[in-house]
Amino acid sequence: MQRIDHVLPWSHLGSERSLSVFRYGAGPRKAYIQASLHADELPGMRTAWELKQRLNALEQQGRLQGVIELVPVANPIGLDQHLQGAHMGRFELGSGKNFNRAFVELSAPVAARIGERLGRDAEANIALIRQTMLQLFDELPAPASQLEALHRLLLRHACDADITLDLHCDFDAAIHLYALPQHWPRWQSLAARLKAGVALLCEDSGGSSFDESCSTPWLRLARAFPRPRFHWPTSPPPWSWAAWATPGSIRPRLIAKRFSVFSPSRALSAANGRPRRTRAARACRSRAPNTCSRHTMVW
To answer: What is the DSSP letter of 31?
Structure first.
C-alpha cells in the first residue's frame, strides 16, 4: 500500500490540511473510490475505512489484479467545520459553496488538443484522452482557494480510472438510483441488488458535480468525434459494475434520470454512448461511470 498525502494550499496560520490517498495493487486497470465529499455524510467514510482494511489483506495475499485508489476522507475542509455543536459538512462556510458543485470540466480543452490525433484504435484513444486530461490539470493556473485545490486533486486522481465511485448518504430517504437513460438496461441488476425503489434518469443535472465532471467530458467528446470516423469500443469492460451485481426480484420504478455511472468506452461508443450516475441514498450514496472503463457513484 502506498499512502499519498497532498497538502492543501491556503491554510490558515498555524494550521494545515491534507488529502490522503491510499493506493493498492498494480496493473493496467484502475478503480477510484472516495467518500464523504459532503463531510457530514459519515456512513460512506465508515464504509471506505472498512474497505481499507480489506484491501490491505487482499494486497498482502496478492489477490489484487489492478490498481485501487481509496480516499476515505474526500473533504478534510468540511470535516473540520462545526458551528454551535453542529457539523457543517455540505457547504464551505467561508464561501457558502456546495462542496460537490463547480468542478472543472475539461472537454473543450481536451478536444482542442487531441484533434486529429484520434484514430481507429479504441484503447489508444482512451489512453490519449486520459493523458491529455492529466496534462491539462498540471497546466491549470494555481488554485485561488483551498476548495478549488481540493476539487482539482480529486478529479486528477479520478480522471484516469476505469471505475470511479463517489459514496454519499442521506438522513432520510428511500434508496434510489441516478443514471443515464442509455445505461439503465445494464444497471437494472444493481438497482435490484440495492433494493432501490426508484431510478431517476438524466444526462446533466446541472451544477458540475464531481461525478458529472468525470462523465461529461466523455459524452461531449463522443459527440465531437463520432463514429465511423473514429472507433470507440462497445463491449462492456471486465470490471463492469453490472457484472458484479446479480439480478434480483425488485423492479424499480423508472422516473426521469439523474445519476451518474460512467465509462469512457461506453460514453465514447457512439453518438448516444454516455456516462451515467447512480445514487444509493441513505447509508451510502454512490455514483460510477461504467462500460469498458469506469463507474461513478456520486451525489
So the answer is: E
Residues present in the chain in total: 299
With beta carbons less than 8 A apart as the criterion, state whether 73 and 35 touch: yes
Across-strand partners of 277? Answer: 259, 260
Q: Among candidates 278, 122, 258, 249, which has minimal Cα distance to 186?
A: 278
19 strand-pairing partners: 6
The pLDDT score that the predictor gives to residue 282 is: 30
The tens digit of pLDDT for each residue in 50-87 reads 999 999 999 999 999 999 999 999 999 999 999 999 99
- pTM assigned to the model: 0.77
Burial class (CB in 10 A: 0-12, 13-18, 19+), 105: middle
CB 275 within 8 A of CB 216: yes
Q: Give the C-alpha separation, 183 to 180, whole Å.
A: 5
Question: Could you say which DSSP state residue 142 is in?
Answer: P
* DSSP per-residue letters across 160-185: T-SEEEEEB--SS---EEEE-GGGHH
- 116, 265, 89: which is closest to 186 by C-alpha? 265
Q: Quick one: which of 180, 168, 221, 176 has its CA closest to 204?
A: 180
Instruction: Report helix, strand or coil for 287.
Output: strand
Phi, psi of 107 (to 5 degrees): -60, -40
* SS3 call for 200: strand
| 287 burial level (CB within 10 Å; 0-12, 13-18, 19+) | buried
Distance CA 179, CA 81 (A): 31
Residue in the block written with cell 428511500: 174
